[in-house]
Amino acid sequence: MIIEKYIVRDMAEAFERGKASLGDDAILLTQRIIRQKGFWGFFKPKQLEVTMAIEQRPINKKSVGAVSTAGLSAKTPLPQIQEDLWAGSAAKDSMLTRELESIEEFRRFASVNRLATMQDLKLKNMLIRHFLQETLDQLTFSDIVDSGCVAFVGSTGVGKTTTIAKIAAHAKLKHSKKVGLITIDTYRIGAVEQLKIYADIMDLSMMTVMTPIEMKPSYLKLSKTCDLILIDTLGTSYRNQQQIEDICRYLNEIEHLNKVAVVPATLDLEIFEKTLDTYREIGIDCTILTKLDEMDNQTRLFSYVRRMSEPLAYITTGQNVPDDLVRADSKALLSYLWEGVEHDERPSA
Description:
It is built from eleven helices and eleven strands. The longest helix is centred in the middle third of the chain and has 17 residues, at 121-137. The radius of gyration is 25 Å and the shape is elongated. The chain folds into two domains: 2-60 and 68-137, no CATH class; 149-339, Rossmann fold (3-Layer(aba) Sandwich). β9, α10 (300-305) and β10 (312-316) form a beta-alpha-beta unit. It has an eight-stranded mixed beta sheet with strand order 6-5-7-4-8-9-10-11, sandwiched between helices. Strands 1-3-2 form a three-stranded antiparallel beta sheet, with helices on one face. By secondary structure, it is of the alpha/beta class.
């Protein structure tokens, strides 16, 4: 494989130079906007740094006319990507295939780089992975340990209590935070006892709130000694509007409260979207995606994260406390998505 890098004004110039140097089969690998060096570079037009490649060195290729992708407008129908696009590719998966083919930017990317007819499977994989990485890089991510007071909302069984314990341990052990816990989940048998066991093991202050009027005094008491307060709420279905309103009555007692939606990666995509839409009505600040270890297909992860408009804070990959918690970022997501294995990095500062 021959790879060359150019600094150009626009993509038309990039393709002209790439094809002049590498030939008609040159493909685009990467592109990024850069500023010219030096103080005066701030006042000069930005430039593009592009990387182009060819599967093998061309023989006696001459300069050709400029090629531009400008004609591929958002409304221009593009050829259907054929099944052989995925032949031999690590990304060959029906769900991921459908998800990618629903993205017009990918269809344009595949057309420009001629993925459907590419014979070099290693290069094809690299290009698809590159597109996934660029897409994931556009997502936003968040942390929780500096959020002051955080309430976790989600359906029954999604792993809220276990996730709270993991984050509490992470905040205390990695960031030396003084952590306090509040639970209003007094309906589920054993819920209070489960959180209390974690609190006792980690030597954390914990309070149980039975009514909304008790919420603010409990919060104020903990806030005198705690840097971070984590609130475990009643698990409820997105369909149960009454229970959601009950939870809001508790949470509305605290000002400047951050709300986190805890959603499992095992839901049907339609239910996943409906669940997030319901929690958006109460004003969530970020999300946590749990149960990645229980997904029947790890490439589903790409479909989930593309439907999140809020920052993603963590992903969880098992029940072990304080393990099986991964700080979300594009690198961690791609590693789990592409390789089908848990990312090897634990939450870090």
